[in-house]
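subagent[fold] <- orchestrator: predict structure for attached chain, return tokens only, no commentary.
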Amino acid sequence: MTVTKDTLIGDILDFDVECAKFFFEIGMHCLGCPHSRGESIEDACYVHGTNADELVKKINDFLSSK
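subagent[fold] -> orchestrator:
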């Protein structure tokens, strides 16, 4: 899986639940909420005041290292 800013959080977590740690790091602790699972990375980063490009890179680096 390759993640982009448009990738839905739910799709990422369905692919690899270990990616949850990256969302926790930005203060997104509501991953079980149906609304958050339907948000894109870009939307979540906007709401939480973080950089979407940095989060995408972290997740892709993590997934490619497996």
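orchestrator: received. Logging for downstream: Residues 9-64 form one domain. DSSP finds five helices and no strands in the chain.
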